[in-house]
Amino acid sequence: MPKDSYLVALIGAGIGPSLSPALHQREADHQGLRHLYRLIDIDTLGLPPEAVGDLVRAARDLGFDGLNITHPCKQLVIPHLDTLSPQAEALGAVNTVVFDGGRAIGHNTDVTGFAASFARGLPDAPLERVVQLGAGGAGAAVAHATLTLGAERVTLVDALPERAAALAASLNRSFGDGRAAAAGPDQLPDVLAEADGTGGLINATPTGMAAHPGLPLPAELLRPRLWVAEVVYRPLETELLRTARALGCATLDGGGMAVFQAVDAFRLFTGREPDSARMLAAFAELTGAVRTPR
Q1: For the whole prediction, is pTM greater than 0.85?
Q2: Residues 99, 65 contacting (CB under 8 angstroms)
Q3: Which of 4, 76, 167, 173 is most enclosed, with most CB atoms within 10 A?
Q4: The pLDDT value given to residue 290
């Protein structure tokens, strides 16, 4: 049965700029709830990513209701949970943990968050060939969402080729042979050329975050007929989006995904239905403006 007081936190690295606390707490205020949302930054604490298991146990012992999990802990947290939702299990990545009767249950709201954001921001974007940078925890969710949206083929490029290959194999088992493929960084020019006019580029790496500035690929590989989507939302306009927009690419920032995954996480934490339009408006206010996708 829903309560009227909740204690949750976000675990990750370099999460100081996160808007998750404000998004959750503002929605809770509108619903007359007490909702304390804390940041547990492993960089600030001087802890390795592998410490996520100890942090989950401590949060459970201290009476937290749930946790959000972000880079670089979305996959590392799994062995420390009691059970996973079907979607989190299929993805091998968790971004939301709910404590229920002493059990830690892993969920993934990145999938639904990205899908809702993409459908809202790039509704007419072609999806024949999609190139995705990053095959980690966020990458698994975004690739799954992209195929669910109807992409014919997603090509994964990761700094760890074996990780991209493993994710592609998992996606092909779920969606059918040939729907996903892995490519090395040296193949990026060729796969982007295939997507030119038939699809786009998704950045599901941390590159572009305030703590990891820069471009995730050489700027000269971008083409005007590609759409470009970001997972990063702090800053809202990354160097990738700024460069792509200058070329005339249709773009989608990471703000929508941040809001819609928070909408789903709020529902899991509280058992109450959040107002997504109100949370989108709160995000716009917190960031100063939301750039309209082209």
Answers
A1: yes
A2: yes
A3: 167
A4: 43
Kindly give the interhelix angle for 276-287 and 255-270, rounded to the nearest 10 degrees.
130
* Angle at the Cα of 145 from the Cα atoms of 144 and 151, rounded to 5 degrees: 90
**Tokens linked to 233:** 């939302």
Active site (annotated) includes residue 74: yes
Do residues 121 and 65 share a domain? no
Strands 129-133 and 103-107 come out as unpaired
Phi, psi of 14 (to 5 degrees): 65, 40
CB 130 within 8 A of CB 157: no
Amino acid at 220: E
Three-state secondary structure call for residue 251? strand
264: domain CATH number is: 3.40.50.10860
Among candidate residues 71, 74, 107, 129, the one labeled active-site is 74
Supply φ then ψ for residue 240, to 5 degrees: -60, -50
Low-confidence stretches of the chain (pLDDT < 50) are 290-294
228 φ, ψ to 5°? -130, 125
